[in-house]
Amino acid sequence: MINSLTIQDFRGIHALSIPTLNRINLIVGDNNCGKTSVLEAILLLRNPSDLANLYRVAKLRDAAVFSSGITLYENFTYLFPHAEEQLAISVSAKCDGAPVECSVKGEKKQILLDASEIRRYSLISHNKLPSSHDSEMEAEAFSGTVFYKQEGVSGELPLDLNTYSRATGTPVTRKKAINISYVSPFEHLRGNIVNRIIKEDTYKEICIAALQLFDPEITDILLLKSSEGNRPIEYLKHSKLGLMPISTYGDGIKKVLVLANAIASSAGGVLLIDEVETAIHKKYYDDIFNFLVKASRAFSVQMFITTHSIEAIDGLLSTQNYDIQNDTDEISVVTIKKAEQKSYSRVLSGRSVAEDREAFGFEVRL
């Protein structure tokens, strides 16, 4: 469990400290205040000693349903809020009382690249090599160091990127410091959900339970070979309608399937959910949010949830029975606010927000 978080110069966040965190953390605030950036910063701590994890976080926003095709180098430089030659970001946390950190420091510079190296990259990424250069050409580059701390071990990794290379240096897969999963607002549109679920009976059971919130007649999740091709098709088994392709269902069913699978795969770790309300009608908030909270308890998952919706905030707070719960409170509401060159956080207990919402209509997002 992440107990506290500090972010320095990451994306739109210049300096942010969240001193206390709970098992369920609602991240709220105005547009462009840095809610998604908080989740991405936490993702850096999943594997701070692995360059591949840093690259994945850098390309996260470019890995949407419609990819923009921006180069790795561009995506990487967008992690830094200041367009300066000297660049630095730092994300640190206490996880079960132990420090975890990922920091990057370096500088931009101009380098000369051999044209053969650029051509090799161009064949992979389909970038076009300018025909006016036959031997060498100038490119912008980043040269620096990744500093990491995890499980009582600290170290450094060299990091070199340029505008034409995917990555120089060797990304290596190391043991995760924290088991962290991330659900984007449009994760349900990517497909290939069932393939991950049917491999684990425990995951499958929790996903079926989630689907039955929408339709109690859904009894199974299947992946069957198509009669017209080799690509398998995702089906739901319905006690009255028989086998129904998941594609025939609405986005709400797909979103809940993604959330249920993410909770199960985050067991004993952390789940980040960006814009939880996307694709879910508010009439289902009570059932789905109760399911999320109960499932997170069952799988020992700490959740960070961003939302723009005051109805979603109220729905998540209603999962707690504060009339019966005396001192226990699983929820914290973290409001992020950006002002000039600093980001601020306000951490309130779920109980206090629920009481102020009921008595005064408190607008917690501002």
Based on secondary structure, the structural category is alpha/beta
Distance between the termini: 27 Å
Poorly predicted runs are none
The CATH architecture of the largest domain can be given as 3-Layer(aba) Sandwich
Q: Work out the number of β strands.
A: 15
| Spatial arrangement of strands, main beta sheet | 2-1-4-5-6-7
CATH superfamily (homologous) name of the largest domain = P-loop containing nucleotide triphosphate hydrolases
CATH topology of the largest domain, which one?
Rossmann fold
Instruction: Describe the largest sheet.
Output: 6 strands, antiparallel
Tally of discrete structural domains = 2
CATH class of the largest domain: Alpha Beta
Count the helices. How many? 10
User: DSSP strand (E) fraction?
Assistant: 25-35%
What is the N-to-C succession of helices and strands? Answer: EEEHHHEEHEEEHHEEEHEHEHEEH
The radius of gyration is 22 Å
Helix content: 25-40%
Write down the overall mean pLDDT. 87
Tell me the overall shape: globular
